[in-house]
TrEMBL record:
Residues 70-96 are annotated as: Disordered. Keywords: Membrane, Transmembrane, Transmembrane helix. This is Uncharacterized protein. Residues 77-91 have a biased composition (Acidic residues). The chain crosses the membrane at residues 12-33.
Length: 513
């Protein structure tokens, strides 16, 4: 019997060897694939760790807009980000700050260390509160992200303020990658470990994208979605929106309206004055500018693939609005710079004054490099950039989509700049810009229609004057009033909504009960 078994094995030796060889090779391939970023170990224009996928064929770059996670920034729900403790330098357990020494992130790590015990070193008290301000106590006593105001970029538009807007578009993908990598390092530090994965970029084949379907989500449905997500961190809202909705058709359906609603209803917030001490309002204005950077970086990167679509037009309107708000934030910066000089020793020991001091110090050199020394410099630089953005929108919007709003906003920017500089030529240019609107196609919403009609009626009563020097002072004041009050109704609705959903007046309700 033994000889028979040996005979069978001998006669089948070829098949047995073939089976063992196939089994071994399959095992080796599976092991290699599961333990490698790429089975071919290629490096494409950078280290292999930044690539989640590689292809042999023609490749195109595509950013992954997935959630990085853990970012703070929304005062309604964020916890104190200064409680994390870093690990020993390079010990492998915890945050290894040594690996960032000499890199572009060295200053970031120093700032993280310098703010980790900020709340323990400085008082977070409330004084000089105006009891008749009408601002809810829930807003006054809300948590504020002092650490992020210092560490992150509350004035992200300064760096490229002197560049043409096309340069901003060209650099958008790189800026988003750096932005996300910075946030990843912040998250690592605050968690006290390095478990968060490095930022990845996906490489996809040309023509891989599938046809996009139009989004169907009517106004009532969008409102319910936005109301439900309003209390979430703004970064979380934006990441969820991009991952769920930005894959829909940018021209057909409701995506363009949804982008507009997301920004103006949820991500653009109001700051309320409630104290005779201006430092409170400055902090809150910077607080609301925290997430302007996140929206700016994400949507600038999305703009390159959506330019020339309805959604791209809405993105450009939101970006222009960010620059307008950033110019006001810089006004707060220069005002804070002045009253910091007059701060008392007691004020210098408060969390808000120390935060403003560090913010002033952080941007001092950058503003000097950009030749922005006064509020006048801010107005001139930001007016130029905002007109550049609007001109881009006017030239790229498809089939005249919202082009009337584009010309109205350009005229408003010119008029306000002329008023600020006492330059009637700019105001004459504004009038000529508004006069072009009547000949433009009607496609999409014209949100400034009422304000436009009021200005046109005023100009017609004066004989269709186009030279601002011929306008009576009273007429100029009337135009100013129309421009200032054009958003009154929408701002009142916004305030009522935020008061109801974010800042309920608990004390008043308790008194009634």
């Amino acid at each position: 019997m033994r000889k028979g078994i040996l005979k069978v094995l001998f006669e089948s030796r070829f098949y047995i060897a073939l089976y063992i060889s196939i089994f071994s090779h399959i095992t080796l391939v599976i092991y290699s694939f599961n333990n490698s970023d790429s089975p071919y170990k290629k490096t494409l224009c950078g280290p292999a760790w930044i690539y989640a996928e590689e292809e042999e064929k023609e490749l195109t770059f595509q950013m992954n807009f997935g959630k990085i996670g853990g970012e703070t920034g929304n005062a309604e729900t964020s916890e104190d980000p200064g409680e994390g403790e870093e690990g020993e330098d390079g010990d492998g357990n915890g945050f290894s700050k040594g690996k960032y020494k000499g890199s572009q992130w060295e200053e970031l790590v120093k700032d993280l260390e310098g703010t980790s015990s900020l709340r323990k070193q400085y008082k977070n008290d409330y004084d000089l509160i105006n009891e008749n301000s009408g601002v809810a106590d829930s807003y006054i006593k809300r948590n504020r992200d002092y650490e992020d105001i210092i560490i992150k970029d509350v004035l992200p538009t300064i760096k490229g303020i002197r560049d043409p807007f096309r340069v901003d578009i060209e650099n958008a993908d790189d800026n988003l990658f750096v932005h996300k990598e910075r946030n990843r390092i912040i998250e690592e530090f605050r968690k006290g470990d390095e478990s968060s994965p490095p930022i990845t970029m996906r490489i996809s084949k040309e023509g891989e994208a599938q046809p996009k379907s139009p989004l169907t989500m009517h106004k009532d449905d969008r409102t319910r979605y936005l109301d439900k997500s309003l209390k979430q961190k703004k970064e979380k809202q934006l990441d969820e929106f991009i991952s769920r909705f930005m894959g829909y058709d940018p021209d057909k359906g409701d995506l363009s309206y949804f982008v507009r609603d997301l920004y103006y209803e949820n991500l653009q917030r109001l700051a309320y004055p409630f104290s005779g001490d201006p430092s409170y309002f400055a902090i809150d204005y910077f607080q609301e500018n925290l997430n302007k950077e996140d929206f700016l970086r994400q949507m600038m990167a999305a703009l390159s693939s959506n330019m020339g679509t309805n959604t791209g037009t809405e993105i450009l309107f939101t970006i222009e609005n960010i620059y307008e708000i950033q110019s006001r934030a810089l006004e707060q910066y220069f005002q804070a710079k002045e009253y910091l000089k007059l701060a008392t020793p007691e004020q210098k020991q408060t969390l808000r004054y120390e935060t403003l001091r560090r913010v002033e110090e952080k941007y001092r050199k950058l503003l000097r490099d950009k030749k922005i020394f006064t509020i006048k410099d801010v107005e001139e630089a930001y007016t130029k950039k905002r007109i550049d953005i609007i001109d881009t929108m006017i030239s790229k919007t498809p089939k005249g989509y919202r082009i009337k709003d584009g010309y109205f906003e350009k005229g408003r920017i010119l008029w306000e700049a002329g008023n600020h500089r006492k330059d009637s030529k700019l105001q004459s240019e504004a009038i000529k810009t508004w006069n072009r609107i009547s000949n433009l196609p009607s496609n999409g919403d014209f949100l400034n229609e009422k304000a436009y009609e009021s200005i046109q009626l005023l100009l017609r009563d004066l004989g269709n004057v186009s030279d601002a020097d011929r306008l009576p002072l009273q007429s100029k004041d009337q135009i100013e009033f129309v421009l200032r009050s054009r958003l009154t109704e929408s701002m009142n609705r916004k305030k009522e909504r935020e008061d109801k959903l974010l800042w309920p007046k608990f004390k008043q309700e308790n008194r009634r009960n």
